[in-house]
Design brief:
It is built from 5 helices and 8 strands. The chain is α/β, with parallel strands linked by helices and 196 residues long. The longest helix is centred in the last third of the chain and has 17 residues.
C-alpha cells in the first residue's frame, strides 16, 4: 500500500506542468524575417503551445518589441502600444488566457513580417488556429479612418472560441490527448508496474 501511495504522489507531481520560457523565433530571434518567409513568426507561434504562466523571451539588436491591441497588430500601427521594450532582451509573462499581439517598433519592420500573435491557453483548453490575415470585419472601408481603440479586456480574449468550450468540465478533464498529460501517465504506469 505504501508503494501505491508513493506512485500516486509521483504521478501528481509529474502532472503539474512548470511554466516555460519560449525564445521568440528560436535561434533567429526577433528580427525582420526573410522576404520569402514573411509568415515566419506566425509559423513559429503555430509550432508552440503557450499556457498561462509561460514567458516569451524576445532577443534583438537595434530594434524593439511592442505589445499592441488587435487592430494595431493587423494595421502595423506602433503609435499607441500597450507596453514597449527596447533593451535588447525582453521577457514578457503570459499571465492570462487569450490572444497577445506583438509588433516591432521600428518603422516598416511589422509590414515586412516582424509581428507575432500568440494564443495563450488555460490548462483545460485546446489550441485554436491563429488566422494569418485579419477577418474582413476588421478592415476599415477605404476613406474612413478607424477610431482609436482603448485597451480593453476583449483585447486579450481568444481569437476564436474553442470547439471544446461547450464540453462539460468533467468530460474535458478526462481527455488525454496532450503529450504533456500522456508522458506523466506513462511514467506513472511504469512506476506502478515496477512497484508491484
Amino acid at each position: 500500500m505504501s508503494h501505491l501511495f508513493k506512485c500516486v504522489i509521483l504521478f501528481i507531481m509529474l502532472c503539474t506542468t512548470a511554466a516555460r520560457d519560449f525564445k521568440v523565433g528560436d535561434h533567429f530571434g526577433w528580427h525582420v524575417p526573410d522576404p520569402t518567409d514573411t509568415s515566419f513568426y506566425t509559423h513559429w507561434a503555430e509550432r508552440n503551445r503557450f499556457q498561462v504562466g509561460d514567458s516569451l523571451v524576445f532577443e534583438y539588436e537595434n530594434d524593439s518589441v511592442l505589445s499592441v491591441e488587435k487592430w494595431d497588430y493587423f494595421q502595423c500601427d506602433a503609435s499607441n502600444p500597450i507596453t514597449a521594450f527596447d533593451n535588447g532582451k525582453s521577457i514578457l509573462n503570459l499571465d492570462s488566457a487569450g490572444a497577445f499581439y506583438f509588433i516591432s517598433g521600428t518603422a516598416h519592420h511589422c509590414s515586412r513580417g516582424q509581428k507575432l500573435l500568440v494564443e495563450v491557453m488555460s490548462p483545460q483548453h485546446h489550441p485554436v488556429p491563429v488566422p494569418e490575415s485579419p477577418p474582413p470585419s476588421l478592415l476599415a472601408p477605404q476613406g474612413i479612418s478607424p477610431s482609436p481603440m482603448s485597451p480593453s479586456p476583449e483585447a486579450f480574449s481568444p481569437v476564436a472560441s474553442s470547439p471544446y468550450d461547450s464540453i462539460e468540465e468533467d468530460s474535458a478533464s478526462i481527455m488525454l490527448s496532450s503529450s504533456a498529460v500522456m508522458a506523466p501517465f506513462a511514467t506513472f504506469l511504469v512506476v506502478l508496474l515496477l512497484a508491484l
